[in-house]
Write a structure and sequence with these properties.
By secondary structure, the chain is an alpha/beta fold. The chain folds into three domains: 2-112, Rossmann fold; 120-363, Alpha-Beta Horseshoe (pyruvate-formate lyase- activating enzyme), CATH 3.80.30; 369-423, OB fold (Dihydrolipoamide Acetyltransferase, E2P), CATH 2.40.50. 34% of the residues lie in helices and 22% in strands. It is built from 13 helices and 19 strands. Strand 13, helix 12 (301-314) and strand 14 form a beta-alpha-beta unit. Helix 12 (301-314) runs parallel beside helix 13 (340-363). The longest helix has 24 residues, at 340-363. The protein binds 5'-deoxyadenosine (5AD) and iron/sulfur cluster.
Length: 424
């Protein structure tokens, strides 16, 4: 989502003559796009800002902005802690960036963390028909109404809002016209999508089926989903819609029903496992991915063991795991924390298990021939890197003019996070 948002900020500032640069020394404006999900991510921005102090001293015209969810949550506080910041913009107000930049040029210090009543996506300047990388993100919904007890998203991104079907199709059409062959539909709670079209309500599966009708579009993905919004149609789509890739990120967070209840997840471990069975019945080879939090307040060793046992049952192809981090304003932040050393110990035990499963999954690809969408040059000369259907990075020797092509690659060996292959 933040990568997509950064693209939108770049394109909004294009209206004021800005183009992207990769080096802070070259920049007339530095915009930090920030994440508020855990304390570590949020604190990072202050050290990052510190690094730009000498640049700002040497070039007083340099504009420094903070965007994203930390901006949303701590707007005025950021200006107080770091007076060199010129503008603060929350995720709902990126379409306001051009006028905010103008205010800064006139000596102002704008802070915009409003939730607009109008469709903020409407305010984006029309894209120039520039060619795009083969794989693109497309936001279909934003925000979340679930209010998991640990999570800031409903506060920073607001309640769930789905974009209308026609807008999404228009944006998809534009992407495809610019060379995109894979679209990753985005939303904090993407499978809660309920857009409107000609007086009807469309779920995510119906939207996916519609997008799949575009000939030039070859692959569709979506992220991130909630177990309670995995409806029958979406499960079926994994079996009957060829362009929908066999990869599903379906966070469960924990394996103990007591902890799931305390987290306000509104599902049990048994419900989740049954869901996984149904998804696998529709698409047996699907690669599953998840998110886990260890050390949520009240989590005992026995609760933690239930998380390990759920992982053993699912055998995730890939997963993200975190120590619980108390976030101001969330209900769980009021509760007694689990001891920090205990949290670290549980995280390393969980990660050892997840890594074992991930390595086995990666290893199982060796010797197979996989379709790979080539995306960009690889690390070594003459190499290209692309993605398998299971979202694995695959490196191989291939000419650059194959960018955007789906090639057949024989997998020669595997690493934890990537595969090496040979063009067939
Ligand atoms: N502490 C730790 N991890 C968190 N996540 C969300 N909030 C917190 C928190 N307070 C994790 C969840 C979520 C992922 C995006 O980040 O696992 O799925
Ligand atoms: Fe946060 Fe996801 Fe829960 Fe929504 S469903 S509150 S985004 S963890």
């Amino acid at each position: 989502m933040n990568v997509y948002d950064s693209e939108r900020m770049t394109s909004a500032l294009g209206a004021r003559g800005y183009v992207e640069t990769t080096s802070p020394e070259d920049a007339d404006m530095i915009l930090l796009n920030t994440c508020h999900i855990r304390e570590k991510a949020a604190e990072k921005i202050y050290s990052e800002l510190g690094r730009y102090k000498p640049l700002k001293a040497a070039k007083p015209d340099l504009k420094i902005g903070v965007a994203g969810c930390v901006a949303q949550a701590e707007g005025p506080e950021i200006m107080r802690r770091q007076p060199m910041v010129d503008l603060v913009v929350g995720p709902q107000a990126y379409h306001r960036l051009p006028e905010m930049e103008e205010q800064v040029a006139k000596g102002g210090k704008p802070v915009n963390t409003d939730f607009p009543a109008e469709d903020k996506f409407d305010h984006l300047p029309h894209s120039q028909k520039a060619k795009r990388a083969p794989s693109a993100f497309l936001t279909v919904q934003e925000g979340c109404d679930k209010f998991c007890a640990f999570c800031v998203v409903p506060y920073t991104r607001g309640t769930e809002v789905s974009r209308p079907v026609v807008k999404i199709i228009e944006e998809a059409r534009d992407l495809v016209d610019r060379g995109v062959v894979e679209i990753n539909l985005l939303g904090q709670n993407v499978n809660a999508y309920h857009g409107h079209h000609e007086g009807q309500e469309w779920g995510l599966a119906r939207l996916i089926r519609k997008l799949a009708e575009m000939d030039e579009l070859k692959r569709i993905r979506f992220t991130t989903s909630h177990p309670n919004d995995m409806d029958d149609d979406l499960i079926a789509a994994h079996g009957d819609t060829e362009k929908l890739m066999p990869y599903l990120h379906l966070p469960v967070q924990a394996g103990s029903d007591k902890i799931l209840k305390a987290m306000n997840r509104k599902h049990t471990a048994a419900y989740y496992l049954r869901l996984i069975q149904r998804i696998r019945a529709a698409r047996p080879d699907i690669a599953l991915s998840g998110d886990f939090i260890v050390g949520f307040p009240g989590e005992t060793e026995e609760d933690f063991q239930a998380t390990l046992s759920l992982c053993r049952e699912v055998r995730y192809a890939q997963a993200y795991s975190f120590k619980y981090s108390a976030r101001p304003g969330t209900p769980a932040a009021e509760q007694t924390p689990v001891d920090e050393a205990e949290k670290s110990d549980r995280l390393s035990r969980l990660q050892a298990l997840l890594t074992k499963h991930q390595t086995e999954f990666q290893q199982s690809m060796v010797g197979k021939t996989l379709p790979v969408l080539l995306e960009k040059p690889g690390r070594l000369d003459g190499q290209m890197v692309g993605k398998s259907e299971f979202l694995q990075a695959v490196h191989m020797d291939a000419p650059q003019n194959l960018t955007g092509a789906i090639v057949q690659a024989e997998i020669l060996h595997s690493e934890k996070n990537s595969l090496a292959g040979r063009l067939r």
